[in-house]
Specification:
159 residues; 3-stranded antiparallel β-sheet
Amino acid sequence: MRQSNPLPRPRKGESKEVFISRFMGNETAIDDFPSKKQRAAVAYSQWDKRRKRNPGKAMSNKRNRALDEAKELYRDFTGMDVDSVEEVDIPEIDAAICVGTMDAVCYTTTRDGEVESYIHEFKENARPLLAVSNDGRVMVIIGGDFTFTDAGFEDDVPA
C-alpha cells in the first residue's frame, strides 16, 4: 500500500485561481483523481472548506471579542439580551454592479418587547451605495457615513 502525500490546501493569502491551478497540477491529486473534472471538483471543494477549518486561538479570541461587541450593540438597541448566537454564511460574490445610492433604510425589529418599524433617511453626504451581485441574488450595502448605535442608524455628517 502506497503512502501518499496529503492533498493541497489553500495557503494564507493565496488566490482562488492560484490554488486551483496548484491543486490541478499536484502529483497526489493527479494520482488520486485522474479525471480532470473530478480533480477540479475536489479542488473547488477544498477551496470552499478553507473558511470552515479551525482558525486557531488568535482568530477565536478576535471572533469572541467581535461577538461580545455585537451582543452588546444588540442589547443596547433592543433592550433585550441575546438568546442565542448562530453562524450565518455570508455569500461570496465574484462581481457586483452599483445600483445607486441608498436614500433610506426601512426595517422592522423588536425593541423593549414591542415590534416597531423604522425608516432612517440618510443625509445626502451620508448615503451608502447599494450594489447587487452579478447574478442579481445578493444585495450589498457599501460604505456610507453612518453608525448603528443604541438609537438605530445615525448619520456621522453634520446636517
